[in-house]
Known about the structure:
Elements: H1 5-13, E1 16-21, H2 57-70, H3 77-99, E2 103-109, E3 133-137, H4 138-149, H5 152-155, H6 159-176, E4 180-185, H7 187-190, H8 202-214, H9 227-246, E5 253-255, H10 275-280, E6 286-288, H11 296-305, E7 309-312, H12 316-319, H13 322-335, E8 341-342, H14 352-374, H15 380-398
Parallel strand pairs: 1-2, 2-3, 3-4, 4-5, 5-6, 6-7, 7-8
Helix pairs in contact: 1-14, 1-15, 2-3, 3-14, 4-6, 6-9, 8-9, 11-13, 13-14
Amino acid sequence: MDNLSPLRHLIQSHPLIDNHAHNLLNRESATDYDNYPLEAITSSASGRALGNAPTTLPSLRATAQLSELYGRPCANWTDIQSARDELVREDHDGLIRKSLSGTHALLLDDYFSDDEDIESSSWHDSFTVSATKRIVQVEALAESTILQVSNSRKNGESVWNNFRQRFQDALGEAMDDVNIVAFKSEICCRTGLDVDAYSSDDTTLGGSLIRILDSGTTRSGFAVDDKEICDWIVQQTLKAISFKKKAGVVKPLLFHTGLGDNRVNLLKANPAYLQPLIAQYVDADIVLLHAGYPYTREAGYLASAYPNVYVDLGKVFPMVSREAQVKIVRESLELAPTNRLLWSTDGRFHPESFWLANRQFRQALETVLVDYVQHGDFTVSQAMKIAADVLFNNSNRLYSLNLTASYTPAE
């Protein structure tokens, strides 16, 4: 037997914890491609730019792999959609179950959960070994809070004081909720990662809130996209996380970094911008999502230099080519401690986004770890520990999940 077989077997079959994903569509909306384009499973582009996705390497690769998932040959994206429509009609639950095979637990960023087309977080429990846990997006929490206080301008109450207290109360409730294991910031997509480590004064923050209120309505909602208040929201979250950690409650803050759609300022998506904030809140655990791509080395550097930083390797699978995925895994290992690397799919809406991400990540991880073993950089047993840690153990520890993986070693 090939002495690498135990390593290959572990990488391909060890249960995983998906440390950041999103809710699936319900059956009725699963083929609503106008609102939930199928092409988005291999591209983060949006609008007209998404129309070019089927010509990319990730999309062409997905076509071949999805043929295997659907059990029928598919030559192009039209064939993929046809095969998929048939599966959704005949056995939607079966498609989900197969797509989530090997997933022990899901941590869901339920930002879209108010959408009537989306299944609830707890609904996903029937497809995984352990119960689904929630991740709360802090800007969305702020937007719902602003909606609550929007009428305060009419009765003379200080809008800023009202918002500040309500947001801090909502944040505290989420901190105490055992089903919520983390928070997430989308500040990268709103104002960029150049987040101030220190708060502005109340007058400046009050003015920031007024600008947000003036740009929306109670019907349309209010978009939190003013830098001063966006920075303040992140600072308040990190303060609350640091305070709770002293009491033994660990709930990290996840940051979208790098890869995204045209809302992202690519230059300000570099996680290196977060260095002053990371240094200021060293007691708060911080996860850099999406491998920071294309700034993977910067993300790994931060994880090596600061004990509170983790690098998540999600979203780039299946959004970039096979060669790029292997390179991302290699670059993440250049400096980042292996006990600070996490896995996620960033899957959303369509179960295929989970299936492709998990399949492609296991392939890339096997390619890289086997190569390092063959070159003598570490032993098979050390490589097996790295794989199990990235797939399961690191997330299990960070989020205090206390789960036990059911894994049968190769004979």
